Amino acid sequence: MARDQIDPNLISSRAELVEWLEAGSKPVEQFRIGTEHEKFPFRRADLSPVPYEGPTGIRALLEGMQALLGWDPIVEDGRIIGLYDVTGGGAISLEPGGQFELSGAPLETIHQTCSELHAHLAQVRQVAEPLGLGFLGLGMSPKWTLAETPVMPKGRYGIMTRYMPKVGTRGLDMMYRTSTVQVNLDFASEADMVRKLRVSLALQPIATALFANSPFTDGRPNGFLSARSEIWRDTDNNRAGMLPFAFEDGMGFEAYVDYALDVPMYFVKRGDRYHDVAGASFRDLLEGRLPQLPGERATVADWSNHLTTIFPEVRLKRYLEMRGADSGPTGRICALPSYWVGLLYDDANLDAAWEIVKGWSAEERQRLRDDVPRLGLKADIAGRSVLEIARETVALASDGLARRNRANLIGDDERIHLAPLLRVVEEKRTLADILLGKYHGPWGESVDPAFKEMAY
User: Fold this and answer.
1) 3-class SS at 119?
2) What backbone phi and psi angles, to 5 degrees, belong to 405?
3) Residue 331 belongs to what H/E stretch?
């Protein structure tokens, strides 16, 4: 999340919350692709994490990026915490442990979002290399303990840090030691949203397996292929998970609003101040009876910000966010939107994908979600392996991208960006499997070589 919303217009009813979500519907010709990715900064000299302050810290990195790009700074308590491109809509932000995030602009093609990624990485290297900094593409920091990980100076993260240990055992690991890539996609109507939400929720564990890339913690194997995904299983189950209600009759914007209203709040922002209301009800704010802020009424910004504090495997805002993938190398960042665009932006594929998943029960979907972080492609559901389903859905995505027929300057369509996933299903192993093989082989049971081989 690059910056909190600032719309001060009051919201006085549940119906307005529903209308706000529904206003995200748009014509198919206006569908866009927004890709976000995080990466771990590290000091090249000793592979240590990068603090915020200091002549070669995160603040210096952001100030250098601002000078290079000319983007507007996002400032909190006098400190720069991000950058925003007022023209294109992209942004750079910080996650709690210093993970450096590009929130990409809404673009028409995967070629464009991949070009945006390559440009960003070239720009960030230009600033980072003189500072002695590099960036690591893994789903979890492989070496640093939680105590060694720096803390970024953002008010909302302080509130979350205090609250997380009350509602789960892994929330601080999630905040400070994980890294993800996600793609944000549009819907045309409530019915279209429901179809896409159901298919993407059911298939999200398949994507988790395809992109598994977090097998190390504290300098050694952690027993998982996607430890990032495993961490989410006990972070805060009131605001995470597979949303079984989304598959029930009557699912729509109203059902999601009711779910979101039941998720406890973290904060209310007024001016530059974050008021800690962790555990409070948005319903009370809506009615002007929040105990921590008596008489304060909900605004559009409060609702939008509250939705960013909900973390299911697929998140609904005014678009849908695919949240199941570990961060990884450049090609895999481009592959994630390729997979989901090929499946969800093609009506025939959306129907075909629904045929794959429609018979799965809530219990089966949850078991798959629980098994994939450990088993990856070897997990199964309804008598089929994840590898088999991955192979089928990657093929569907390829067909969908072919039908989109969006060519780059040399005539290649968007299928070229699926290459990393084709390798996964052909070789029958995830990137995490490959890294574990190197750890037990040429790396000599050290994770340090990852800082060279997995650096951007």
Assistant:
1) helix
2) 55, 50
3) helix 330-344
pLDDT in tens, 65-116: 999 999 999 999 999 999 999 999 999 999 999 999 999 999 999 999 999 9
Classify burial at 8, counting beta carbons within 10 Å of its beta carbon; exposed 0-12, middle 13-18, buried 19 or more. Answer: exposed
Angle, helices 300-307 vs 14-22, to 10°: value is 70
Instruction: List, for residues 195-220, the tens digit of each pLDDT value.
Output: 999 999 999 999 999 999 999 999 99
Residue found by looking up tokens 């989304």 in the block:
246
Which residues, 6 or more positions from 175, have their beta carbon under 8 angstroms from its beta carbon? 95, 96, 97, 157, 160, 161, 164
Q: Measured between alpha carbons, how far is 61 from 404 in angstroms, rounded to an integer?
A: 38
Q: Are 152 and 97 in contact (CB under 8 A)?
A: yes
pTM: 0.97
From CA 269, how far away is CA 274, in angstroms rounded? 4
Q: Length of the chain in residues, anyone? A: 456
In the chain, the amino acid numbered 277 is V
For 159, the 3-state DSSP assignment is: helix
For residue 439, what are its two tokens?
A: 């750890």
Residues 6+ apart with CB under 8 A from 20: 11, 300, 303, 304, 318
Contact criterion met (CB below 8 Å) for 432 and 332: no
Q: Whole-angstrom Cα distance, residue 2 to residue 81?
A: 9
Token pair, residue 15, equals: 């119906």
Tokens at 390, concatenated: 């991955």
**8 Å CB contact between 22 and 190:** yes
What mean pLDDT do residues 264-271 have? 96
